[in-house]
Amino acid sequence: MAKPSVYIETTIPSYLVSRPTRDVVISANQQMTRDWWRERRTEFDMFVSDVVREEILRGDPEMSRKRAEIVRSLPILEPNETVDGLVRIYKAHIGLPLDAAPDIAHISYAVAYEMDYLLTWNCKHIANGAVIRRLQKVNGGLGVRTPTIVTPYELLYSKEGEEDV
To answer: Residue 46 phi/psi, 5° resolution?
Structure first.
């Protein structure tokens, strides 16, 4: 049986290497990300895009190097006409601001490459119920499947193929 595919969005390597914080929510998310990475990541085929690679190189050089090391061995999904077309459609129809262009690109890659999951901590523009509903509506009209958009928390405690109790 093939492993489920997961698109690793930029926040995942960022949380994996980020410095400790006093913000209890962010600290918990960092720990959850590390737990998922340590305990569950081998159960998935993980992918990134050039957008992830570009984003992780921004900011503090030491942290950029650490983020790059995290994704170094992951396959890179190549840009193509399908991704570009989805970017244009999503910009027009899912209601995200112009500064969310990288987030629209992440969603577009995950959809174009038919990923099972899009893993993110970006709850403002990606793992957001209203955005997901609009995305599902647009994708339904296009006849394409929307990946399951989750945080590491959601993939840490549920195993693929397990029946719900």
So the answer is: -100, 145
Helices (H), the chain: 11-17, 24-39, 50-56, 61-71, 81-93, 101-112, 129-142, 152-156
Q: What's the structural domain count of the chain? A: 1
Rg (CA), the chain: 16
Determine, yes or no, domain membership for 39.
yes
Residues in the chain, how many?
165
Question: Distance between CA 123 and CA 132 in Å, rounded?
Answer: 10
What digits encode the pLDDT tens for the residues 23-43? Answer: 999 999 999 999 999 999 999
Give the strand order in the sheet containing 5-8.
76-77, 45-49, 5-8, 117-119, 148-150
CATH of the domain at 76: 3.40.50.1010
Q: Which domain holds residue 99?
A: 5-156
| Residues 17/63, Cβ–Cβ less than 8 Å | yes
- Percent of the chain scoring above 90 in pLDDT: 92
